[in-house]
Amino acid sequence: MIFTQRISSQSNSFKSFDDVQIAYTDEGSGEVVLLLHGFINSRKSWFKTALKEDLIKAGYRVIIPDLRGNGDSQKPQHEEAYQNNAEVRDLKLLMNHLKINNYKAVGYSRGSIVLAKLLTEDNGIQKAVLGGMGIDFTNPNWEKRMMFSKAFNGDINNETRGAVDYAKSINADLRSLHLQQKFQPVATIDELSKIEIDVLVLCGDEDFENGDAQELSKVFKNGSFKMVTGNHNGTYKTKDFSLSVLQFLD
Length: 250
Prior knowledge:
The protein is an alpha/beta fold. The protein has helices spanning 50-57, 86-97, 110-119, 143-151, 161-169, 174-182, 189-192, 213-219, 239-249, and strands at 5-6, 12-15, 21-29, 31-36, 60-65, 103-108, 125-131, 198-204, 222-228.
């Protein structure tokens, strides 16, 4: 297998299926690993983590996009821009744009939700890590998703107020965040049970916000589960998380 080399961490972009600009970084050389960020976040959330640095040192080429509506990617305001698994389509087109046929992928929090759906549509993924996520997202009528969709459309309660306040504090686009939740990709248990690649579900020992992570691992034919130290907002930044991912990907 021939690998190309990328040494720049500067932002690049490409036009997706509906001309929305999707920003990404492409750094390192070797086998490709795609990193997907969480909600109210961007690709920059990975920049100072042990995982990004360790992957590059281990000889991987690391690609990190801003999912549409986040970071330096465009933030369309109309519903059609988020319907029909738009984020999954963006990722498939990004890899096509970069002429990458086979790769490994790591998602965290909402990035794991998007990655789970991507697994059902892209057979070029060789291994996957779903971090910071339990089984609840497999329910199309997940109450938490609907609650946060309403919150970013103005219907705020005590459970969602902190997230909305944080989003405002970093000047995130509230309309886009609402639409990301309203039309969030859904990968059902039936769909995930058909996936045959190795999938690691990796969760912090203080992270119980999104259902049972171990139960999620059991859905996959070749799923495994590991727990490391950390809470939902911090686990992906830790050295233990990085070591667990690298051991699995190797």
